[in-house]
Amino acid sequence: MERKLTGENIICISSVDWEPIWTRKQQVMSRLPASCKILYVEPPITLLSAVKDRSLWFKWLQWLKGPRKITENIYLYSPPVVLPFGNIYSWVNRLNQRWLLLFVKKIARRLGMDNPLVWTYLPNSLILAEGLNPKILIYDCVDEHSEYTGLIKKDTMLEMERGLLERCDLVFVTAPGLYESKKECAGNIHLLPNAADVEHFARAALPETPVPDEIGALSGPVLGFVGVIHDWIDLNLIAYLAQKRPDWSVAMVGPVGAGISVDRLKALPNVHFFGRKSKEELPGYIKGFDVCLNPFRINDLTRRVSPLKFYEYLASGKPVVSVEMPGVMEFSGVIETASDYEGFNRGVERALAGESEERKKLRLGAAARNSWESRVEFMMDKIREVMKH
């Protein structure tokens, strides 16, 4: 079977901006064939978003710039602001989607993108997606969106997502829990977990990769976390480890989410926050870790997630300690897992004491089997199958 998609127009309705933090959306889109023209539609902010988070003010007028070309085949577009409460009231979402369609359709016409493959990451995007006259409609479901905290009504979100699932030609989900919860509504659904940019994060194992001075200056074994520090991260677990083992240093690398307080952790002498780093810098930071931490809170959201950072840790070759969550248990032979705080502490101790070149090779081998290249190849195979029918 031909594995490439040649010369297709693809409109990606994304749930995150292209920069600064790369997730599954950017990893997938950047690996599709260069002959495909891709319009990456960043998520709109609402009229209230910039009031809650002042860093978003720049997005108020960014739509006036039109499409921005970032590679030979990828264009970014930031749509105008929308009404708040679209994830609480379906009628508000319908207004927002029709409003967005006016602008996205205009940009698609300007770029000559007729009859595109529409690839969405937003569960409430059916009106926008259908309005773009898709050749095929793809939903890549990466989270249980109805379990997010904030301005969301669970039943409304599930209803909107159900309509999208029933209309889609092809659905991918990242975790077994998502597969179980979506399979009844989707006719063509495939489990496809997250992965790693293996070559990039393998730089953490190279002698020539420098460790940043701020990490190198930490004392004792360094336990490290990389990612957005939000309410799905168990900050109580981090505090427990730091207080139980004052001889360990904990490095938190990533931005702190809006509304999340880390004052209690900052008051601990052995917990250090380094803020957001570019993806180019991350291998150096991870190289400075003795153990990588996957400290998710266990709830209905995290039970149905495939933790992206986990695969990046594997690709670095470093020891990994994770809470027991379905998305990582198949790797229990090469990582340490724990069901409670004391078990997590013992897992770190085992990871530090039992590290060897053999264990490192096992982790690197597991990462190599879970690359973004292999994931995109699988996706293209499934898209080609749909297009042939």
Automatic annotation (TrEMBL):
Keywords: Transferase. It comes from Desulfocucumis palustris. The keyword Transferase applies. The keyword Transferase applies. PANTHER family: GLYCOSYLTRANSFERASE. It comes from the Bacteria. Coiled coil: none annotated. SUPFAM superfamilies: UDP-Glycosyltransferase/glycogen phosphorylase. This is Glycosyltransferase. GO terms for molecular function: transferase activity.
